[in-house]
UniProtKB/TrEMBL annotation, chains A, B:
Residues 1-23 are annotated as: Disordered. This is PPK2 family polyphosphate:nucleotide phosphotransferase. GO terms for molecular function: phosphotransferase activity, phosphate group as acceptor. The keyword Transferase applies.
Length: 295, 295
């Protein structure tokens, strides 16, 4: 393709965020059926992979600027903050989101927590204990790689606690999230959804490449064998924990480039809606200029 | 400049890491005199700003690859880890290092801690208490924006504890750092050194731009007025806490592009020396391929 064509493509891809917002295209409302999702689709974006990669890079500057304003507001006593929750099956691309979307943001403004199987100490506390400890402070973008939702997903599928106990957690989670929102948190909850076939290919790649062995765990196949149960558990999460005030967004994730773009755009759309501004000076500018000149 | 010239420049800049290693050019040995440093120099690099910016970008891929190997070793039970300590006067460019050098690394592999004035709880504990809590785990790159060295810098200059107490800390720190090294930590200690004039200009910029007011604090000028005392305190740190096994590197930092490149190259040179390799599979590959195929 010639230079002109390339330029034309770039122009199209920077308009990725116009048209239907990603939030509207991906939001989970009443009656949502996860099983109906075509995980190769690219809602709210009509470009191809190369357009998507361009669009991701093109939005970096705006994301940087909004994040810095958020951080600045936080240092000046503001209470606004963001919590981005990323859920998904093994190999759904959570790591890629962390690396390519979260990784493009100034690390000083990000609090990233990857939740693993709980430790003994964590198990000795209510399930939200470790979650509360990891919540972002004012001005920060908190990112959860897995989250409190594991306590109604892996826990439910594997009967790790009695059903009566984990079933109570849906309302506990809804109350907890409302509390976060009241404290100034903009909550963005995402499920990266891949097909079982796509997961099979991604796991196979890990077994084919010596530089990927470390990412493979025999337990991944054990969990894969419970695929259908996980889908039921995810559907229940979407049924019970996607109120209009704290909705889930389900991102079709068989195409990695699309999933990254979609999460970035969800983050951008939410940051834009936060009306972030540079804080006023809380000192006398002329006095300080004088002090500096004399120092 | 034409295309050919540009290409020529690029070639030169990617060789930034050849010739004298940055570690050798910046390492603090016996008899080092901080006051003799020309903070506009660019040791181990003979290019200009544009070369330096190119060289920084050019090294991204290698840094990524080494970091991923380090992380992989950590997941496989290795004990190696990195701790990058960044010290410097206000406006020396610590934030820029976090954003442009640390920010280029996969955030999943980085533990970044910015140490502020200690809280009441922290003050009620020995000075290394909060430091120990922030140490990186195996496979991680820990980054300290300020560190335990503040406890012999700002503390000494402002008489925050009796001299007999902070003077004891030099040997406490040396012992602590030896312990880290024995535990598998590659320690990289950096001072970003700017001139007083350069600091004056950077503070003035914060007072000139409404989008920078939030970075300004009247206390910055109060500390600036103690510039000479801080230089004495830094010299004492370099005299007492730069043994051959845990040396400081002083980076001339009046040129932001150089400081970023130098810290990146220090990190790279240390990672290269760690002999990082992809872990062997700790499972039977053929068995797992079979399990996966049947799942």
């Amino acid at each position: 393709m010639g230079k002109k064509g390339k330029k034309g493509k770039k122009k199209k891809s920077t308009s990725a965020a116009s048209g239907t917002p990603f939030s509207d295209a991906l939001r989970v409302g009443e009656g949502y059926v996860l099983a109906d999702l075509d995980t190769r689709r690219t809602p709210a974006f009509d470009g191809d992979k190369s357009d998507g990669v361009d669009a991701l890079l093109a939005a970096d500057g705006e994301l940087d600027g909004l994040q810095e304003r958020l951080y600045a507001e936080g240092t000046a006593g503001g209470s606004k903050r963001v919590l981005l929750v990323i859920q998904g099956m093994d190999t759904a691309g959570k790591g890629g989101i962390m690396r390519h979307v979260v990784g493009s943001v100034d690390p000083q403004g990000v609090d990233l927590t990857a939740f693993k199987a709980p430790t003994e100490e964590e198990l000795a506390h209510p399930f939200l204990w470790r979650i509360r400890k990891a919540l972002p402070g004012p001005g920060k973008i908190g990112v959860f790689d897995r989250s409190h939702y594991e306590d109604v997903l892996v826990v439910a599928v594997n009967d790790l606690v009695p059903p009566a106990q984990w079933k109570r957690r849906f309302s506990t989670i809804n109350d907890f999230e409302q509390e976060l929102i009241e404290d100034g948190t903009t909550l963005i909850k995402v499920v990266l959804q891949i097909s079982k076939e796509e997961q099979g290919e991604r796991l196979a790649e890990r077994l084919d490449r010596p530089d990927k062995y470390w990412k493979y765990n025999p337990g991944d196949v054990t969990e894969r064998e419970k695929w259908a149960d996980y889908q039921v558990a995810y559907q229940e999460v979407l049924d019970k924990c996607s109120p209009a005030s704290a909705p889930f967004y389900v991102v079709p994730a068989d195409r990695k480039w699309y999933a990254r773009l979609a999460v970035q755009q969800l983050l951008l759309e939410h940051l834009r809606a936060m009306d972030l501004t540079w804080p006023e000076a809380d000192f006398d500018i002329e006095v300080e200029k004088e002090r500096l000149a004399n120092s």
